[in-house]
Design goal:
The structure holds two protein chains of two kinds.
Chain A (H helix, E strand, L loop, with lengths): L4 H22 L4 H30 L5 H23 L14 H33 L1
Helix pairs in contact in A: 3-4
Chain B lengths: L16 H29 L16 H27 L12 H28 L9 H29 L6 H4 L5 H21 L33 H4 L10 E5 L4 E4 H6 L3 E8 L5 E10 H7 L7 E6 L8 E4 L1 H4 L5 E6 L2 E2 L9 E3 L12 E7 L1
Parallel strand pairs in B: 1-10
Antiparallel strand pairs in B: 1-2, 3-4, 4-7, 5-6, 5-10, 7-8, 7-9
Helix pairs in contact in B: 1-2, 1-4, 2-3, 2-6, 3-4
The chains are: A mainly alpha, B alpha+beta.
């Protein structure tokens, strides 16, 4: 198999940049803590987040409404992931301008908005189909 | 061992190279914006010696834009990264796990990429909420791991170049070889991912892009919340300054012709009004109207040479960023003020009463509050 020069050079550039990152990490006092958190990030995704997403998909995404439901779950999941720090941060914020909003309420509002839009899409699809049927 | 459960069998569709390429290029773009804007922010906060005096003071909104983009593209990367990892997840279970030395190295580089990418967006997001559950210091580690992400991503692009090329467009050879019935489902998935990126952006970006502030539902800051309608990071209490009595306040300007001013004398000098943003490294920013004395006028009176750098020293007794330095571009910019008033009112203690620095194109942490001393550096 022929590997182009540009590809080899790109790979070498990547390795060099990784080397920069690794050497910077070696200067960090608590390297063990960093490695635990790096490994933990991969394990958290591979052993928890991904199986959970697949399981939710297996249970909820089925039948004729697959695509809108999948889309709704994806958007709601992304909003939830982004909201987790402001929802769960323990302790009192540094001052009143940090985390000033009612986040549980706002998060629920975004989920209601996603559910509403999805319901409207499904209803619109239903109307289109029932109109289309007599003609065909 | 091979059993009925392991390795798992993935019957679902779209775990394919075309989907991975379509999502991957948007994720790559988000990461590239994150890296470039992150390096800009790093240069501001830890300038290498050769750059320390070369940072430009214009455009005035420069840091506001780059740091707002840094946080917004990092948040946009979250749904993109999760979708990308979902697409390629079955490859975690390829059998046999290792076919050759080359295959082992390839998998190792992907492991570094996944770990570093998840780590980077997660720590960045938690930092915006000022939540630090880890044992290490955030800034140097977030910076180092950024290079790991960049490097392993470039390496990944080199390794996967043939597959990326084969699935780049709808008409590419690899895409055409995929089952045609996957097309509509894939487009629906990509539309949902785009919708997720839009949703997380719209509900957070108002913390820096103020026209959308009313849609700010999930951001850790809101432009209207804070003393005098402006967010703060370090309060007067946290900095250990409290309320500085006006009659006791002195500003010392150290230079070839040093002098000291009382607060009344400062108020008596020609006052200038500027519209400048406070732009925090955590991503929030807001523009405000500041009134005060030009730093260039104070420097001129101290006999400072036109290319002098300046050190600004705070009266705060606790916390970092007590001292900041400015290159000559900032020190001699007509927009750079020692501000006494904010939106027409006297500064509140949390915004630096009685005197704070406000300069264009500069991170918020370097807009030193409770200024007690200016030093002309040769």
């Amino acid at each position: 198999m022929r590997v182009s020069v540009a590809r080899v050079l790109t790979g070498a550039a990547g390795l060099t940049l990784m080397g920069v990152g690794a050497s910077l990490l070696l200067d960090v006092p608590d390297l063990t803590g960093v490695l635990v958190w790096l490994g933990g990030a991969a394990v958290l995704h591979d052993a928890l987040i991904a199986p959970l997403v697949l399981l939710i998909g297996l249970v909820l995404v089925r039948g004729g409404t697959r695509r809108p439901v999948r889309g709704a779950l994806l958007v709601a999941g992304a909003l939830t992931a982004v909201a987790l720090p402001v929802l769960l941060r323990p302790g009192k914020p540094a001052n009143s301008s940090v985390l000033p909003l009612d986040y549980p309420r706002n998060w629920l509002l975004t989920l209601v908005a996603v559910a509403t839009v999805t319901a409207l899409v499904l209803a619109a699809r239903g109307i289109c189909r029932s109109r289309g049927r007599p003609r065909s | 061992m091979r059993s009925r459960l392991f390795p798992p069998v993935f019957k679902g569709r779209l775990h394919d190279a075309r989907t991975a390429t379509s999502i991957g290029r948007w994720l790559g773009l988000a990461f590239m914006v994150c890296l470039v804007t992150g390096l800009i922010s790093h240069a501001w906060q830890h300038p290498p010696g050769w750059l320390a005096d070369g940072l430009p003071s214009r455009p005035a909104w420069g840091y506001r834009l780059t740091q707002g983009l840094h946080v917004a593209s990092g948040i946009a990367a979250i749904p993109l990264l999760l979708a990308k990892l979902w697409t390629v997840y079955p490859r975690l279970f390829v059998w046999p796990p290792v076919r050759s030395v080359r295959h082992a190295l390839e998998r190792l580089s992907v492991a570094v990429l996944v770990a570093a990418a998840v780590f980077e967006v997660a720590t960045g997001l938690l930092n915006t909420a000022q939540w630090y559950p880890w044992p290490f210091s955030f800034v140097p580690v977030h910076y180092a791991v950024a290079w790991l992400v960049a490097g392993s991503l470039v390496l990944h692009l080199a390794v996967k170049a043939p597959e990326i090329r084969a699935h780049w467009s709808r008409r590419s050879a690899g895409t055409l070889a995929r089952p045609e019935e996957d097309g509509p489902s894939r487009r629906s998935l990509l539309a949902a991912v785009a919708g997720a990126v839009g949703a997380v952006t719209v509900t957070t970006v108002g913390q820096s892009f103020t026209p959308l502030k009313d849609l700010t539902l999930l951001a850790p800051r809101h432009p209207d919340h804070g003393p005098q309608g402006l967010p703060v990071n370090r309060t007067a209490a946290a900095a250990g300054v409290g309320l500085i009595p006006a009659e006791r306040y002195r500003l010392t300007v150290a230079g070839p012709q040093p002098y000291t001013l009382t607060l009344d004398e400062l108020r008596g000098l020609p006052q200038h009004e500027v519209e400048l943003p406070i732009a925090c490294v955590e991503g929030w920013s807001k523009s405000a109207r500041w009134t005060g004395v030009r730093v260039m006028d104070l420097l001129e009176r101290a006999g400072a040479p036109p290319h002098a750098r300046v050190r600004v020293v705070s009266l705060q007794t606790r916390g970092g960023y007590r001292v900041s330095e400015m290159g000559h571009a900032h020190a001699h910019d007509s927009l750079t003020l020692l501000a006494l008033r904010l939106n027409g009112e006297e500064l509140s203690p949390d915004h630096g009463y009685p005197v704070r620095l406000i300069a264009p194109n500069r991170p918020g942490v370097l807009q030193t509050k409770w200024v007690g001393r200016l030093e002309v550096l040769s």
